[in-house]
Batch of 4 targets.
Target 1
Amino acid sequence: MKKKSLLFILLPSIIFGFFMLTSPGINNKPKGYVGISSSGISIIILITIILLIYFLKYNGSPQFAPVNLKTEKTDKKNDKANEPKIGFKDVAGLDEAKEELEEIIDFLKNPDKYRAMGAKIPKGILLHGPPGTGKTLLARAIAGETNSKFIAASGSEFVEKYVGVGAKRVRALFEKARKEAPSVIFIDEIDAIGAKRTLESNNEKDQTLNQLLIELDGFNNDQTVIVIGATNRIDMLDEALKRPGRFDRNIFIGNPDIKSREEIFKVHIKNKPINPKINISELAKRTHGMSGAHISNIANEAAILAVRNNKKSIDFDDFNNAIEKVIGGLERKNYSIIEKEKRRVSFHEAGHALMGKILSSDLISKISIIPRSQALGYVMYTPNEERFLITKEELFNKIKVMLGGRAAEEVIFGNISTGAKDDLKKANEIAFQMVCEYGMSDLGNRFYEPTLIKNCYDIIDREINKIIDLCYKDTLEKVKLNKELLSKVANVLYEKETLTGEDLNTIIEKYNSTQKVSII
């Protein structure tokens, strides 16, 4: 390419100069002939030299040269002054995990007292659990608590299509940690590079994982370097990565219990103007099963709603509306629904609430037919108590409550609608777990691995159908027996659009007093 460009630049000047120099008019200059003068030759030579210099400069920085692959991430200077420090005091509800990590921090600060007892520093700590439970927050808290160098990275930073780049980045990361020991390496979403190796996995991914395994094994005993990994999918990690000697401690970070949720609420409302009448314990009950990230979002949404309504403090209504927004989605205020469908939705939601009261499954906190997100109505439940184990009968009752809306439609209108789509999905999920995971079907004490489900699908499908049909039959009978009460609840819901748990209890108590016998 260089030779061709030079040839095209010099060729016109060479041809023109050669023609003029060999022209007879230059030497003989016959009469009437207009030849080229010596100054003209000088101009040609000068133009040629200028073109040649331009070519050399142009070629020195070609625009079409191949781009060099940048194999190392540019180190970004951390602005510690503008970055708020987070300590263990800012992490609520993870007492066991904090206790484990405080021991590691003490090891980094005072390694001699542990070595005197012959104790070795753990090489790796694996934090795993559902999303939003505080794994990354814990790692940030370590940076605030320890005086050691904290090096954060993400699993996706090591994933490249070019072979060898990921492995090189792993080597550079650990080399930096060794030079600046004592240090802590935090790798978020470690499943991006630590996934199980298979015949279908690519060479680059395997090389990156192999390098990570080698680096974890390669630490000297006197080096105070700890690796902390975080993942939502521990089942995806390679077995060689999870073994002791690489990740010595596996810490499960689950969703907080009611006491932990109270502590998390206190952390997130600490710097907010809160109405003193707010009951934190009640908020913790209403957020059963939610993660710390959900609670943080609820506190923030409540503050936004208070500002929107020009309030000077955040009250209980703001928190209630924030919880509904997080669970059910945005309220569709301008959504128009025809009266015929509104009445059907009223009976559908009343059916759910009625079955919940008959079976005493969970406390009902709210019933609404105001559309939110894709739902035309919803029933919110508050658990009676914090539960970790569920019996077979309780799972059957959960399915019956979910099918209560469809059963109410069939009893009142004589047909069913598409409104039970989400209910059917959840009911079938519970039935599937009962058959394949909990051993609660006629198949007995069986557990089906995901790889075996395809081969046994017909048997599993029959058992799921049996459970759903049995639950729906019982639900229909109970709704028919309480058809009059169902109508009363649905009619009040149709008029008011929203009922609280207390409103529902009042309707039922009034109905029972007229019947002179307790129906529920």
Target 2
Amino acid sequence: MDTASTISHDIVTLGVGGLTFSEVVAVARDGAPVRLGEDALAAMAESRAVIEALASDTRPHYGVSTGFGALADKQIPVELRGQLQRSLIRSHAAGSGPEVEREVVRALVLLRLSTLATGRTGVRPVVAETYAAALNAGITPWVAEYGSLGCSGDLAPLAHCALAMLGEGEVRNSRGDLVPAAAALQAAGIEPLVLREKEGLALINGTDGMLGMLVLAITDLRALVTTADLAAAMSVEGLTGTDAVFAADLQALRPHPGQRDSAANMRAVLAGSPMISKPQGFTRVQDAYSLRCAPQVHGAVRDTIEHAATVANRELASAIDNPVVTPDGRVESNGNFHGAPIGYVLDFLAIVTADLASMSERRTDRFLDVSRNHGLNAFLADDPGVDSGHMIAQYTQAGIVSELKRLAAPASVDSIPSSAMQEDHVSMGWSAARKLRKSIDGVGRVIAIELLTAARAMDLRAPVAPSPVSSAVLRRLRSAVPGPGTDRYLAPDIAAAHSMVLDGSLLAAAASVVSEAGGELV
């Protein structure tokens, strides 16, 4: 059997080799069931034997017979070590603020379970089996926004998850009701955990929250950057720009893979468009940067996403705990719980997300200005002056972009010492992940407004038709959003376009036509 996790019949099997992106998303978002592989159960039993052998040792062993953090020099009597682990969970479940989203908490629980399955933490198999049973029963621990500094693990979020497995605190059941954890476990036939040596520590000492949010963010951004390519191409078309600059040989002169892919996407969208300016009578030597340089900017976003994915994949294959049980049976303290690698790329993604949105807003703005939109009405209004068209839609974009620029300020450059200066440098990776989620929500809305605006401009250029790909996107959009006319309540149009960005239906409409022509959008 392969030691890496595998999906069989929609069941995610956790082995000692970690998880894949698709598995994390399947469990976190789609509720896929999980099970523990035989290799994981065997590895956990083997490492637990090491911990059991240390339980009665008179020498101090961190997390087994000592306190935690700045209290690590305090020896704990044998009869109090179970209480030590319970007290750790209860005291660390100190989160505050709004409730964290279900998909994030499910990813958090899953990734902690994945580390337990490596057999490097020293917990009993029953601990992992309880986590798996809770996931399969749709039990989602209540976790608060604030409480993690991204070092020594996502302590408070993970402690709230562990607390639920003890039958304490609150959870969301499979129906989404907030109920006592004890009641939810009982209803699902799950015995609450009774922790033994080291097990409480092993349940909270991981980067699982920030990693889960990173995996979800990368999944979303991969789709959004392709949707941004579609929007940019439709803007070039609606502004009667040129596709000559996207030629493959020109892009190959600067061989960044992301740039190559974005340019290829834009060429595919623009293929066969009667709206694209031809050399005869073409008076613009070059389009503006927001049009001409879209592959360069979008491509750099793509390359940043893939760098972040490399980091995430390494972390998905990791066993994060302190102390850790090594394959040769040693129990060693370490610093692998520090979230710096994840925090840095989360911040990097927030930067490129803000820039992706910023360029989208600039293209939208060009459509609304009669000095730059090449023959269209001011603000794409039906009767400028009486009507305002998309004037305030661009304001909405601008407000979001401004917010995204603020969210691009890195969290990982901050550090507040904690635990009586024992933990004197922290990553703030959880905070980086939380703000990235807001950024991703914002960029989807900005791209939706650009698509809505480009579509309106194309309709206003009738009877000249757009490309076959853009025509398919227009048909899909017009199934929910009416075409140009006098001013109407605009928020529902924006909401409908945003919904089609999120569900991928606009991208699917484009991809279908590209596929029929023998190509693909990437």
Target 3
Amino acid sequence: MKLLKYLFMSGCMLFMYSCNKTTTTDEDKGEEFTLEYEKFTLDNGLEVILHVDKSDPIVAVATVMHVGSNREKPGKTGFAHFFEHMAFNDSENVPVGANRKMVPEWGGSRNGGTWNDGTIYYEVVPKDAFEKILWIDSDRFGYMINTVTEAALEREKQVVKNEKRQRVDNAPYGYTDEIIRSNLYPADHPYNWTVIGSLPDLQAATLDDVKEFYNQYYGAANATLVIAGDIDVEETKKLVEKWFGEIPRGPEVEQMEPMPVSLETTKALSFEDNFAKLPELRMVFPTVEEFHKDQQALEVLGQLLSGSKKSHLYKSIVEDKKLAPNVSSYQSSNELAGEFVIRVRANEGVDLNEVKITLDDAFAKFETEGFTDTELQRIKAELETQLYYGVSTILNKAFQLAQDNEFGGDPAYVTKRAKLTQAVTREDVMRVYNTYIQDKNYIMTSVFPKGSSNLAVAGSEPATVWEEEVTAMNASEEVGQGEEAVYNKTPSKHDRSEPPFGETPLFKMPTVWTNELSNGMSILGIEDYELPLVAFEISIKGGQLLDTPEKAGIASFTARMLNEGTATKTAAELEEAIGLLGANINVRSSLEEITISGASLARNFEETLKLVEEMLLSPRWDEKDFEKIKQEILTSIKGREANPNAVASLSFDKLIYGKEHIFSLPTNGTEESVTGITLDDLKQFYTNLSPRLTTFHVVGAVDTDKVTSALSDLEKNWNGEEIVIPNYKAIEEATPGTLYFIDVPNSKQSVLYIGKQALSAADEDAVKLNYANEILGGGSSGMLFQTLRIEKGYTYGAYSFIPNRSEVAPFILNTSVRSNATLPSLEIVREMLLNYGPNFTEEDVALTQNKLIKQNTRAYESLGAKLNILKDISKFDKSFTYIEEEQRVLQNMDLSDFKGMVDKYIQEEEMIYIVVGDKATQFNEVKKLGKPIVELDIYGNVIK
């Protein structure tokens, strides 16, 4: 399958697997899957693909530019990603800042991403904004370069630098990719540097660089445009010609040929990581590029080596030697070359020499023992389900069609890829293992916590990376909007002003069916036959609310143990049984419930539920599994100490809820509480799982009769009494108006976590408060994002929100700003909170109403989103038409309603401020804010 790795963008990494226009047949099952598309090419060379899907009144637009970091030159690294940021700033016929602000206000979402080989821009909007999105997208594509100014250039430099600080410099193991690339690939290879590049290179970028890059690579003939959704094909063709037809073709961009690499010797490197709390080993072997004949066999090899509890690497590293909670191996193919990666993030204090020896032994076992046909069959079954899930949203369809067309020359290539994967044999797997892995040279990294060099693999050479020094803010870092560019508009035979909205689509709730079983379990369902899939979630009330302080984390521990086999199946056998059905099942615990979530092909739904019943009613309670899970939890507890955001969040909860409330403790517990939990404790906690506290939510290609029949055995065999859930009262330990400072030495950013107690999601004010917060912190169009990122360049993102909880939840404002902008960011946030209510306008009311009502048209497209509808109904006792009712509430709110919510719940003087950052440079700065300051350690304890 295709993996778009490390897309540096405002959103997240995308994992996409999809299908094409032609009809494909599963010869074994007799089932047919189709995904129709139409492809044509404009006179300027732009290849356009249209896909019609009228299941929701929304449209997705994706543009792939065939230029990534592999087109850069040493000294100008990170430029493809930097240009992606610049492209969103301004264009000739669209107002300044509109690309980031207007699309969310239309009820849509937009983003972009860059990887080694390409750049993607995409939007999803309600269908009434379809032509508007063509206007804004085509203007970004073909009419932005004249609008670029020095001020915009300097501001976006700061944004990208903040992104690098957040994702790389201030993150554990953030430098590992840079170390690997610079040693795996020669200095002149296009993969020698990371996608985000280096800060000195970014800082040196000029306007001439931007223009040269655009003119070279942003021609229409170097791109693919995909439009998918509720469209009319003939009308869309006319609109595409109108909006995109005049974009210049651009110079010919020479196709890059594959550039696989080889290593003359193995290189062992070590690195002391400022943030890491756990040692990590990676081994990276050079392999093959995308579309190479060996790619699928290498992908299957990765799954066979570590993708199950029966795999050799997992058994050796996790079960036998107990060196780590997990191990991963995978093939990563790009346009020019590929890598096979093995990664082990070990338990605290583990010697990576032992990890390396154990890996070598595991490889030797694989060479002699191999794998079973059943394991190979399981992988192929899982891929079938992934195939369907990969096309479960319009946006994913657009991604795959665009990517396979631009890089494979065939929008339908995914069908071939699926067939190639299904055709992989055991001989293929062993052949690629022998060709690329066995006795071959590789890059190995040992990343260890500060002061733990003894944990690195012996003989490793210290690796070096460029690290930014935290300094006081200088004049070049103070950026702003600046003057708009002066230019002559590019002539056009069309009117390129903003087109009007089409007919407004309104969200209509899907039909919800219900049932009640004799054991007290409720059922809520939505039928959806678009794909042959079923998604379900069993919600059992309780979760962390049933923990006790001395046994904090026991709900989470119990849930994890339910994944570890049954009375008749070991953990490995259970995993295999699930995989052979092409299904997934996972038990986990959250603050207020334990959930058993899963998905399957519709034809395997009954068999999947039989396994769910077995897991729920017949846990294995194996002592070895218990010890393994305990170690995994303790390792994760140690690992969260390396995450400044986690440190801030946990300290915030401790202060907001108070020590008498169970939410003041982490969901997975503390080192002390988890160490004291026994297997008997889990068995006792397990008795809290009662059908009388349970609702079964199901969405997909299944009806009420089939669901009720599939649950009949569970109805008969699962009984339990009503369980009383403790009633907690949040009593803040924090003093309102106080700033709490947590020192993480050498932080390149400061995490700001600000807020106060607010309300339960069951409160009648909850939906109104969410509406009232939208202008302040609701995504990229919110004031926080627009001010701190767009205007000031202090951060990569800034948001505010209220978690969806039955218990009283807090109002939270969260961002990570560059260290030397900590004080000005705090000052901006404080002023914004103080003035938010008084400055709220009628225009803000109208904007919120329009944005959120239209947003609903795309918010419930996926099976998971529809499951969330059912969960909201059951958890908060909402009606079957609650979304429509809440839309009416929003439409009926006036200015006084919005101001009332702000005055009641978003009061700056009642909030606490948490800053996690570098004390040496920032502590004296934050004192200037004028608030009382209390120092905390990373566990939220007051430092006396």
Target 4
Amino acid sequence: MLCLAGGLLAADRLLPPDMSRAEKQALLMQDMRGEVLDGRVSPDGAWRFATKREAVDPRYLALLLQVEDRRFWVHPGVDPLSLLRASFQLVTRGHIVSGGSTLAMQTARLLTPHRHSLRGKIFDMLRGVQLEWRYGRRGVLDLYLTLAPESRNIEGIRAASLLWFGHEPLHLGSEESALLIVMARHPESLRPDRHPQAARAAVARLLATQPAEGWVRRGAMPYTLHIGHAVHEAPGPLLWQWRKGVRGVFQTSIDRRLQASIAGILRDTPPPSGGTWAVLVARRDGSIAAWQGNAGNDCSGCAADMITAWRSPGSALKPAIYGMAFQLGLLAPDTIIQDRASHFGGYAPRNYDRIFHGTTTVRTALQRSYNLPAVRALDMIGAGYFAGTLDAAGIGLKLPPNTSPSLALALGGVGITPLDLGRLYVAFANQGVSRPLSLDWPVEPAPGARLIGARASRQILSILGGAPLPKGRVVTGEDRVAFKTGTSYGQRDAWAAGLRGDWTVVVWGGRPDGTAVPGITGLGTSAPLMMHVFDILPESGTLPTDTMPVQATLSPALQKLGEKRGPQIVQPVNGGRVECFAEDGHVTPLGLVASGGVEPYRWLVNGVPLDTPIGITPSWTPDGPGFAHIALVDATGAGSSVDIRVQ
């Protein structure tokens, strides 16, 4: 006996069952309401989802075992009584009356399909015993529910219930259950969409053999066929999830109705010449509500999904640059900054309109998207620090090969995907905390990474809420959208990213192959489409503003002091002339004095921060005569500035 058991164990290990068919799963994506969005068959071309008996109506299971294997829970995978009965009927009647196959034997044949023969029957018997040995009766039942043929390329009870009836198999009616059972026996001849009369007749015959009580109903067969196939309304998200290894039935955060509405808008909106559109809509919690990676336009590369494509953001990263400068105390919204021709090493950026606007404020510079102030701000915080902070917050940047972060980041000299740009702008709505954008539904709480402080985030939104609107657009009050546009070098990409309430919308327009589209701009091309998308979004709160309570590590008394009176520069006086250079060449440092606001202070001269140790009176030693811009920022982010002439 021990030798027999040892031999069986050795055979089980040397000849394990081939489980590859059961492991090859399809992917069916549903929207947040459970409506089918899109799907993709398994690698071997089947609609197949792993199915557990707990997910199937118990009454279906009872009918299945009653019809296919009454002694399923007692035999070891082969039913000797059924085999004796089948053999006796074959001998006495001269033809096969019943097959004698158990569910374990049928499952063995479904795992490794083969032609019906005596050799194949013996193989199924041995495999049936092996399957119950390895996985138990419950495991065998789960395998059958996963693999049962249900016409066409549909396999398994869950796939059949979803694709034939449009609902999960946990609530199957009597006729639906009977149809799935008879289809598994004759998948093609009882296919209900092609042979409806034969299918209904088979269902009626099966139910007629069951007791006329409980859930089994006589008479009309009220089951109705649903779609029988998967629709294709979200190919981009489908591919994204597939590449991540997601299989089975996956309920997403996408709103199918919103997805369809945006698809209609894109069809009706002429794309950039020779190009296409991409639109991403996300909620404040990071869930993706709509994903349109392309508009179905006919152009080179238009079949690609642009939501995950690397593109130059143009000026769309400027809010993050200023936000970090606010967070570090280097700048404030009303800090005076210069928009003048400057050289940063060998880098000499220009504005898009090739006009320099002189003295301005950070607020105006960001709203008008001036380039020089943004480059100055990035120079203050450091390009490496900026790129590293975004990376630590989960926002990816793609630098040109063999390069390191440089000041060109401020003007789009880097790659970013619309998906990551959406994550950046959702972080502004979340008080500066970056969380992954996800298709999971319900939303799974995810730890966030601090990008900038809450106050800096509100300051950025307050500034962006005053950005110039697209031509012909008027938005006031609760309809206000905080947004930023971007146009990449050479007019290859037109961006618009905006926030309102709980919603963030990112729009990209251009040619997928990266060639230029003369005349496109973020404000003129993509911003109108972004506003159109906001028009169809439901209201959900208002934008945070810079007047909201300060969330910082300051005491209430200091907060009140900072709100009551911002910092003021006492010395030097705005517009004054300061004698620092003597005739003998000696240079006298200029002392800097401030009052009000909340210490510690941070001083900047011509945009460059002064390194002043705590407890030391700040001073500045000019390197030559001329005009100088001196700015002061306190611990709350408030600031003031003066312009002087040094002699």
